[in-house]
Amino acid sequence: MTGTAKLPITDIFPNPNQPRKDFDQVKLEELAASIREYGVRQPILVTPREGRYMIVAGERRFRASLIKGLTHMPAVIDEMNDDLVEELALLENIQREDLNVIEIALAYKGLMDRGWTAEQLATKMGFRQVWRIDEKIRLLNLTEENRKLVIKGKLTNAQAQELARLKPEHQAIALAKILSGACPTYNKLRALVDSLLLKESQFNLFELEEMSDEERAVIDRTDALLTAIERLIGQTSSPESVKKAAYHEAITASRIDFIINHLMKLRKAAFLGEAIRQAASSDRP
Question: 167, 177, 172: which is closest to 146 by C-alpha?
């Protein structure tokens, strides 16, 4: 049977794979009040399943009609396979902006479990970049607690993406750092997560007893060099000193660039090292 009909509401049931899991009760009550006054103005979309009708689109209207106490409701009946049902349910909710990011991730994962590729999904969703699909699905690595924080807006997308790279026990460590304000920037959070990933792989850069005498000497020389550079900058930091130095033939832009580039590499490594030390002490009593 296809077409439009007024179906007994007892013959209609929700799609168990409906992407949307949370329904705002207050908004449902408001919709029920509207239905009480004006009726169901737009039929829901259903598909036959084992002698009954499964909702493809319009579950909010169905739920509000149950609250209102309707016995029948208008519906468009269409024969559809499971893949098309899931696709239309996802598109309807996304177009209405009814899904939170976790529900979207679950819906994407469900479609990919049915054989969709990330490329096909990206095309269907209108994304030019396939990584936007992977980014959403990665959020399913979050613990249930962290998923709830994402839904409530307590974690930004960048914070959630970084936490999703970690195992549950290390997600808890990183979350505590975020909530305490210890990672106010993305770079600090990224460094912390990188350090925790190193811990997960049981690799510790700061076991000094495993270093050779030669490696210790390099570290000592680096420390001495940084101390000398700090002293030199302190002594030549006046505008007059800088001006005179700039005209000296031995001081060239290429030499300064070489030093800056090397110090930037050292800075990046030191930044990660600080995060690793922080992570190493974060789960100590």
Answer: 172
- pLDDT tens figures, 139-181: 999 999 999 999 989 999 999 999 999 999 889 989 998 998 8
d(CA 149, CA 165): 16
The tokens of 281 are what? Answer: 């002490």
Rounded to two decimals, the pTM is 0.55
DSSP symbol at 156: -
Beta strands in the chain (DSSP E): 3-8, 12-13, 44-49, 52-57, 72-77
Burial class (CB in 10 A: 0-12, 13-18, 19+), 109: middle
Q: Indicate if 30 belongs to the active site.
A: no
Catalytic member of 59, 92, 103, 162: 59
The domain ranges of the chain are 3-98, 100-141
- Angstrom distance (rounded) from CA 91 to CA 16: 16
The candidate with the shortest Cα–Cα distance to 52, out of 3, 14, 4, is 14
- In one letter, which amino acid is 273? G
Query: What are the structure tokens assigned to 234, written together?
Result: 């302190």
- Report the CATH number of the 3-98 domain: 3.90.1530.30
